[in-house]
From TrEMBL:
It comes from the Bacteria. GO terms for cellular component: membrane. The keyword Transmembrane helix applies. Its main location: membrane. It is found in: Membrane. This is Ligase. It is a multi-pass membrane protein.
Length: 421
């Protein structure tokens, strides 16, 4: 008896060591997800131990996994950005700086490979949800006392739309809250169906908190545009047509109610028209009006180099050149390095070739999440939200939305492919 126990103990120790070997990289990814809503520096430094831990995993099939479209297309966009530096007319520091935001896409194949083999993806989702919930609580506190904000110059700023910012900015905060709120619908419905009412109520309370914060504290116009569409996606995919119609009616009534009771929501929506009038009539810089000017100029830049674009990092120089030809006009003489549209940003730098790679990347990642399950639901939401928000921003290249995409697609994609196989 004693000898048998002693013989089995080394095997147990070996199993524990191997389990720890695979859990450690997942814990570092969870740490990245935990830090992402709060700090860019912390997120960047957290990548280092994860990459070291990843290097110690079993990687015999890793080269072959890179040949799949879901992994190959992010690599292709990075390669195109690197090669695009060769024909860019921008100074080399600007070319190198411009490729930085694209490099994060290289992490997607690594995450897919890791979480396709080791089932610890829920740790990452739980860490991100917990971190965003804490941001939400801080945001409510900041709405009461702006001195609690980590971004005092925003919460005390002249625009009420920017009050209640815990950290970062109101666009990132709203995108995170919207993603978490809609992502929670799937587990809430599933838990209610299984009779696990208490946990479902807790998650429903968290989701409600995110939505209440967006409606009464701070919300971006990008989130207001994407949130209803994400709700429609859930209804179409997971509800029968009668239930979907009832849900649509309930959402319409809720929207009317919120419009009536939330002055903050009315002010945010009114800024669409206000910005347009400021830009068109007064020729002044504004959010939406400036975007329209960026898009107009970007289309002209694309027409000058439609196939391969003007090269990596060329956007700022192009806007500077266009501004030099304009008389004193605050709106038309703006010099920016971001046209606030993902497609235009790619097309200006890498032409039609770049746009085809970008759209193929989005499409391949969408197809990865065709099945049922929490991982597929989260992955689908991440891709759809990124595509929609990229109509008004460059959210694939921006730090927080871009890393949210990388983590969401990488972790959920690995889990989805694991179930498929």
């Amino acid at each position: 008896m004693g000898g048998g126990a002693d013989e089995g103990r080394p095997a147990t120790w070996v199993s524990a060591i191997w389990a720890a070997r695979y859990r450690t990289p997942a814990r570092f990814v969870a740490l990245i997800a935990l830090l992402l809503p709060w700090t860019t520096t912390g997120t960047t430094f957290a990548l280092i131990p994860w990459l070291i831990a990843f290097a110690f995993l079993d990687l015999p099939d890793f080269p072959r996994s890179l040949l799949r479209p879901v992994s190959l297309l992010p690599i292709a966009l990075v390669v195109l950005a690197a090669v695009g530096m060769l024909w860019s007319g921008a100074p080399w520091p600007e070319r190198i700086h411009a490729i930085g935001p694209v490099l994060k896409l290289l992490v997607i194949p690594l995450l897919i490979y890791q979480f396709e083999r080791w089932p610890y993806g829920l740790w990452v989702f739980a860490a991100f949800l917990a971190s965003c919930a804490l941001v939400m609580l801080v945001s409510f506190a900041v709405a009461v006392d702006p001195d609690l904000s980590l971004k005092l110059y925003l919460s005390r700023g002249p625009y009420k739309v920017e009050s209640g910012i815990a950290v970062r900015n109101y666009i990132d905060q709203s995108q995170e809250f919207a993603l978490c709120a809609i992502a929670l619908i799937y587990p809430i419905v599933t838990l209610f169906r299984k009779g696990r009412v208490r946990i479902a109520i807790v998650l429903a309370a968290i989701a409600t908190g995110f939505l209440v914060n967006m409606m009464f504290v701070v919300v971006s116009r990008t989130a207001l545009v994407t949130l209803p569409i994400l709700l429609v996606v859930f209804a179409l995919l997971h509800l029968r047509w009668r239930a979907a119609l009832l849900a649509a009616g309930a959402m319409a009534l809720l929207a009317v109610f919120l419009w009536a009771v939330s002055p903050h929501l009315r002010v945010t929506v009114a800024k669409f028209q206000g910005d347009y009038e400021i830009s068109v009539e007064d020729k002044q810089v504004s959010g939406m009006g400036s975007r329209l000017e960026y898009w107009r100029k970007s289309l002209g830049f694309i027409a000058d180099a439609p196939l391969l674009g003007h090269g990596t990092g060329s956007i700022r120089a192009l806007f500077a050149s266009a501004a030099a030809d304009v008389e004193v006009d605050p709106l038309r003489s703006e010099i920016v390095s971001n046209p606030h549209n993902q497609t235009l940003s790619v097309a200006v730098q890498w032409g039609v070739v770049g746009v085809l790679v970008l759209y193929a990347l989005w499409f391949a990642h969408l197809l990865m999440f065709r099945r049922e399950g929490l991982a597929c639901w989260i992955g689908l939401l991440v891709v759809v939200q990124n595509m929609l928000s990229s109509l008004l921003n460059t959210h694939l290249f921006d730090f927080t939305p871009g890393w949210t995409y990388v983590l969401g697609v990488g972790v959920a994609g690995g889990m989805a492919l694991a179930k498929k196989s």
